[in-house]
UniProtKB/TrEMBL annotation:
Belongs to the avidin/streptavidin family. Residues 1-25 form the signal peptide. One of its GO terms (cellular component) is extracellular region. It holds the Pfam family Avidin. Its main location: secreted. Disulfide bonds join C26-C103. InterPro entries: Avidin, Avidin-like_sf, Avidin/str, Avidin/Streptavidin-rel. It is found in: Secreted. Keywords: Biotin, Disulfide bond, Glycoprotein, Secreted, Signal. This is Avidin. PROSITE patterns: AVIDIN_2, PROKAR_LIPOPROTEIN.
Amino acid sequence: MMSVITKNLVFHAVILGSLFVLATSCNVTGVWRNELGSVLHIQVVGSELRGLYQSAVETDPGATGPEQQAKILGVVNTRGLQTSVAFSVLWEAGSCSSWVGQCFQLPDGRRVIKTLWMLRSISSSSADNWKSTRMGEDTFVLIS
């Protein structure tokens, strides 16, 4: 029969082991795809995040440029319980998009980045300013 002390040690070891799994940082370097088919190429150097965003969608034809891609620039923080990211894209036609979120390692080993995004389109006048900002969410899944 286990003593009370042994049971407490086992219980705390299980709890601490679970916390250790939760606290594992998530490497965001790689190629990611979101639910719309856009592809995000990320390279992390220190706390800087750089890469390329290949958009699968546009608000207006040509808004993202002829290649539908742009450079990304951002930051990454691996000091918390989960890796957090923030990055932006300046599209060729002048609009800009930004994402903020966190990378999670799932129990099956897959990694995902859950983000909220904001797209600021060019407004032709201050009267049209109200319709120039869109917001949403993306989930990026690591593909390579």
